[in-house]
Amino acid sequence: MPIITPDKVADSLRNIAATISQPAWHDSHPGPLTADHAGKLRRLADRVEHAIRADDPRLDAFTPHTIADPAGGHFLTTPEEADRFLADVPEHWSPGRFLAGLAGAYRDAPTPSEDTIAQVVRMLTVAAEQTTAGRIPQHAVNADGQLVVRFVRRPVRGL
Asked: Residue 150 pairs with which residues in a beta bridge?
């Protein structure tokens, strides 16, 4: 059974869609994905989530790009090859054909470097610590125009 599920692929696509929807992203990360692709990625995510079975062997292609989350679960990295595929894939493709193409892009991509893995593990560890402390994640843009996740205290509800 693959460690990456259709739900995780769909979550990753939705996360990419949320990121590329932000104008600050494009100012500092020119690449093939634009805000115009966000809707397509969300729709493809829904179709993958509902049409692909958890035991689909094509999901194994994502394993080399998967990083174990210290808090549990897995984090799926996105190589440049996947970005190019996602930008060019026709939305009318069936979920199976889409998954086969995306899996091919992941197979063709180099695995994440040790530096990338270390950076992701640090990010996941901080997120787990902040969540344990009762803070919630909030997406924001820093002074350099980069997308960041800030952890803030949960709002106190008035009486």
From this structure: 138
Going by pLDDT thresholds of 50, 70 and 90, the confidence category of residue 26 is low
**CA 83, 85, 91 angle in degrees (round to 5)?**
115
How many CB atoms are closer than 10 A to CB 6? 21
Q: Which amino acid is at 88?
A: D
Strand segments (E) across the chain: 66-68, 74-76, 135-141, 147-153
Q: Work out the angle at residue 118's Cα, subtended by the Cα atoms of residues 113 and 121, and round it to the nearest 5 degrees.
A: 125
For the entire predicted model, the pTM comes to 0.85
- Alpha-carbon 116 to chain mean position: 14
Q: Which residues of 38-77 are buried (b: 16+ CB within 10 A; e: fewer)?
A: bebbbebbebbbeebeeebebbebbeebbbebeeeebbbb
Q: Say if CB 63 and CB 3 are below 8 A apart.
A: yes
